[in-house]
Amino acid sequence: MKIVFFEADKLERDYISANFPSKGNTVIFEKKQISVFAAKKYSDAQIISVFAFSRVGADELDALPKLKAICTRSTGFDHIDVAECKRRGISVHNVPTYGEETVAEFTFALILSLSRKIVKANERVRRADYELKGLRGFDLEGKTLGVIGAGHIGQNVVRIAHGFGMKVLVHDPFAEKTLAKKLKFEIVGLDKLLSSSDIISLHAPYNKGTHHIIGMQNIRKVKKGALLINTSRGPLLETDAVLYGLQNGILGGAGLDVIEEEKFMRESCSVLSSSRAANECSLRNAVIDHVLREREDVIMTPHCAFDTTDAMLRIVHTTIENIKAVSKGKKINVVN
After folding, report:
1. Which of 100, 136, 98, 131 shows the shortest CA–CA distance to 116?
2. Which residue out of 30, 73, 233, 260 is catalytically annotated?
């Protein structure tokens, strides 16, 4: 089979080359994200593997007429038009678990960076300024953490929170009472979580039901001074609402590993001068994202919460197993 890996870095290439069976297979590595142009280069590919930054829609699929399966090296799959793939008989496979501890740890890195103003303190010391004024933070012990989404990552966030002596509220329509009892959290409605939490952390998947789960419709319900953390998917948060919350003293700070217009921020040219971006995304949101980056009470990172050597090796290992199964006519970790 011909298999093309898009967005593959050196660690991934080395691991795949050492562990993927070469007999009967042609494996190609493409450093860049998938595009219609790149897809046409590999029009005879039967399996492709992409990462979360590659968008696979009808146009890309048209350029891959022999495609049988897409194996994304991620848990989320909202970057792939799974309905269109199903219509064409193309199976889509994900990596269900790989970084539940990894992302949960990063979540608390953001929380602690905000609660103890670590970035601001570090910037001062780099300027040889040892003034403490404005650096006073707050303890996590005794505070209430609101977790939106109690999947694998959310559950690990709950466990870590208990280590800090925090009370935990969870909003998740699928959370079971047995899990709540086991992990010692309280299941609550979204409004109660927003109004009662000192820190709110998002760990829900992105879909129509979770789009702008926190937005202008409910940002005023957030407890005054709460921190807002998003290491899940950018569109869970309405960009306008985040800025509104910060400017009006509703939010005490925000830690954002993902943003709503993330894919366009990754364009090699400026979003404001790119005709493609101008046609496809909200320039208004792009400007707001820029404003957020300049605020002292905001920490933004480039969607790297997942990115540790350990997690990446787990991702590639599972992806290889997915591809092996497809080549044998079996299907595991199918999302469509």
Report:
1. 136
2. 233
